[in-house]
């Protein structure tokens, strides 16, 4: 059984979902330290002259776990994000199919960042047709740090293979996986080119956008795009 893990990100990019699709189960790393200026509270969407950030403001104390990080609702970020999606994707072919979810999402009062992120990820998985068992690190009680943490998660699941992002080569202790009889694999995701607002083809296509960019433009074909079919 192949497992993969990742921190709950805000409206993640395509590679996040490619990793889940290539796994037999997925674990949200919700019990690790929150990191500033990464993708846990922000992501990119395509705009007319490039791309923009959608950022969820947070009230963060150093050393907090991701599952503990609270959203700063003193700023009207929900209205801004909803307006941005409508402004830049209203003319996309599948905008009307997915926009009602975001209207409902941003109409709710959110307190914890992780809960918001997970709600979006689960919606995107459903839209993409990716159905995998989902677990939470905080409920597995795996413990450990870095490589040890990942191995403990795999052992708690009874898995025999771990799918890491390509960046794992820089920090994982590969020998530890062998010693624990867990095969270590690395994701090889090649970003596809697809129909994109304000893009006429490969020359001005902008990769690494949030998954909403793909869904609004490709609809039910989105998983095939991710898989390169």
Protein described:
The model has no long low-confidence stretch (mean pLDDT 95). The protein has 229 residues and is α/β, with parallel strands linked by helices. It has a 5-stranded parallel β-sheet with strand order 7-2-1-8-9, with helices on both faces. Helix 1 (14-21) links the parallel strand 1 and strand 2. It has one domain. The protein is globular. Helix 2 (77-89) packs antiparallel against helix 3. It has 9 helices and 9 strands. The chain has helices spanning 14-21, 77-89, 95-105, 113-128, 137-140, 146-157, 174-179, 211-218, 222-226, and strands at residues 2-6, 25-28, 42-47, 50-55, 58-59, 70-71, 134-136, 161-164, 183-186.
Indicate how many domains the architecture comprises. Answer: 1
> What separation lies between the terminal Cα atoms?
24 Å
What is the average of the pLDDT values? 95
Segments where pLDDT lies below 50 for 5+ residues? none
List how many beta strands DSSP finds. 9
| % residues in beta strands | 15-25%
* Tally of individual helices: 9
Considering DSSP H and I runs of 4 or more, what fraction of the residues is helical? 25-40%
The description of the largest β-sheet is: 5 strands, parallel
Radius of gyration over C-alpha positions, nearest whole angstrom: 18 Å
């Amino acid at each position: 059984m192949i497992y993969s893990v990742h921190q709950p990100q805000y409206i993640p990019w395509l590679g996040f979902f490619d990793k889940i699709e290539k796994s037999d189960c997925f674990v949200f790393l919700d019990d690790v330290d929150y990191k500033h200026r990464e993708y846990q509270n922000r992501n990119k969407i395509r705009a007319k002259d490039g791309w923009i950030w959608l950022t969820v403001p947070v009230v963060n104390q150093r050393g907090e776990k991701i599952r503990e990080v609270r959203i700063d609702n003193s700023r009207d970020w929900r209205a801004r994000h909803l307006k941005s999606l409508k402004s830049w994707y209203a003319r996309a072919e599948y905008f009307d199919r997915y926009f009602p979810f975001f209207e409902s999402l941003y109409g709710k009062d959110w307190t914890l960042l992780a809960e918001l992120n997970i709600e979006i990820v689960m919606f995107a998985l459903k839209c993409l047709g990716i159905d995998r068992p989902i677990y939470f690190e905080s409920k597995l009680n795996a413990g450990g740090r870095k490589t040890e943490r990942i191995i403990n998660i795999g052992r708690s699941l009874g898995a025999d293979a771990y799918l890491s992002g390509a960046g794992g080569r820089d920090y994982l202790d590969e020998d530890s996986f062998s010693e624990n009889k867990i095969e270590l694999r690395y994701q090889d995701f090649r970003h596809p080119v697809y129909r994109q607002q304000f893009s006429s083809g490969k020359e001005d296509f902008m990769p690494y956008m949030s998954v909403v960019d793909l869904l609004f433009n490709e609809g039910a074909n989105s998983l095939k795009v991710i898989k390169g079919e």
